[in-house]
Amino acid sequence: MYKIIASPLAVETYQQNIDFLEKQWSENEVLQFISNVSDVISILKVSPQTFKKWEKDSNIHQIEIQKQITLYYQIHHNNIELLLFFNNSSKSRINFETESVFTSFSASDINNKNSLFNMSFFYKPSKKLFFTASLNNIFNEQFFSTIDSNTNYVSEYKFSLRPRQFTVGLSFSF
Amino acid sequence: MNNLELIYNYDHVVTQLIEDIKKSDFKTAYFLKLLNVKDSFFYKKMREKRFSTEEVKLLSKHLYPQQYQEFQDQVIAKFIEKSKNQLNEGLGVDFEKVLADSKKQYGV
Hints:
The complex is a heterodimer of chains A (174) and B (108). With 174 residues, chain A is α+β, with helices and mostly antiparallel strands.
């Protein structure tokens, strides 16, 4: 019988996955995750070679605990050393994000200023229902140019503003 | 690299990404499903380079799968190295206790 040892990072990533599932999905997913980990640990204790080797390092084994969450471990004497619970998912049930960019460019008599602001929100109460709302470019894109030339007696002023855009979506699938 | 340089580089990356979408073997329907948007909105996004950073990440994952895998392997390798160092320093803990605690907390 092998002993199961975990590095602090493995414990931390295990806990992070529980927190992630609890906050972004539901408690059912947390229970499923803990149950799957428990099943894998039971197998590892008696047969650690069961799961496939990581192609980048043959001393490391990997097993998918749950969709998007993979456990990496190594066998060391009579110990199974858990190294990492890696989650490559960025999907979440609730998401709110904003993005803003302001750029300014000045050269000679030309001034260009751009300000962009995007905001989006989505809520996924279940795997079949999906609400989304986004507001793009609240402040719009401002393109402002002034050109003055005394030699050619040219004076030009430009200003453009993009139309605002607001999107609301609802998606339901069977 | 200053902020403006970063912004202009990002703009270049998004432009390249849009070109790669056009050249890609994937049908447009694939990207529509991926981003969960309608075709008219998708083309508008393409035209105006209005993809959010999350959308850019998602698209690049599918457009450049090999590079994405390499990037992910590098990240995993760094974590594993850190973990191994922790274990070599004798910081390992009995995971069955950790598991028992979480089972008790959630009533599994």
